[in-house]
Amino acid sequence: MVHSKSDTTTMTQAPGISSAEASADERRNLISATHSGYRAVKRIFHTVVLILTSVLMAYALLMYQQQQSNWLEFESKQTGQILASQYSRIIAPSVANSDLPALNNLLAILTREASVKEATVYDSQGIVLAPAENTVSMVSEAYLSTKPPVTHVADIKNSSDQVIGYLRILIDSSVVLDPPIHYEQLRTRITAVAALIAFILGVYLTRGFYKMRHTLSFKANRVSARTFYRKTLNKRQ
């Protein structure tokens, strides 16, 4: 009878152990499948983020180049426009009175500006009235120089607001653009250094975060394993 009771006990415990093992296997398979799906979604998400980041970087670079070109063009025109507008008013009385000596003196003062390469006055018919002494060929300057000069033309008007002539100023773009280009290069270097510092800090912060994450994950897995082991023992008992 004792032998029969032992066999009965063994027979009753075996199905319980098999059920627990099957349940554990199913749980592992479910966790593995969930984890695999999560990893696939995470990879797709990171790939999309990387592609979008690359597109945004290319767009930002193109926009920066466009803005830089527009800014340099604005800087090159600003000085010449101001000089042409001011001197067209100053020389208007001399042109109206056909006072060539006074007109030549005013143009000589204008050409003393470091950025002015040439200044010429025309009448309303386009005939040259007073060219500057340091006249240069605009065509040769445009072909030989890496930074071609910029031409500005302003109307010369009398007291009745009638056009009596034109003032043409040839601006040396290298003189005008060298200072802003220098400052822009300094700003670019500072930005590059700041980006490098941010990258290095980001690498170390990310490294520290993943180390901390690994430690926390290891502790959480140990706690989960202990809890699961205790539940399994309780079921077997």
TrEMBL record:
<feature type="transmembrane region" description="Helical">
    <location>
        <begin position="190"/>
        <end position="210"/>
    </location>
</feature>
<dbReference type="InterPro" id="IPR019305">
    <property type="entry name" value="Uncharacterised_Smp"/>
</dbReference>
<feature type="compositionally biased region" description="Polar residues">
    <location>
        <begin position="7"/>
        <end position="16"/>
    </location>
</feature>
<protein>
    <recommendedName>
        <fullName>Smp protein</fullName>
    </recommendedName>
</protein>
<keyword id="KW-1133">Transmembrane helix</keyword>
<feature type="region of interest" description="Disordered">
    <location>
        <begin position="1"/>
        <end position="21"/>
    </location>
</feature>
<comment type="similarity">
    <text>Belongs to the Smp family.</text>
</comment>
<dbReference type="GO" id="GO:0005886">
    <property type="term" value="C:plasma membrane"/>
</dbReference>
<keyword id="KW-0812">Transmembrane</keyword>
<keyword id="KW-1003">Cell membrane</keyword>
<dbReference type="Pfam" id="PF10144">
    <property type="entry name" value="SMP_2"/>
</dbReference>
<feature type="transmembrane region" description="Helical">
    <location>
        <begin position="44"/>
        <end position="64"/>
    </location>
</feature>
<keyword id="KW-0472">Membrane</keyword>
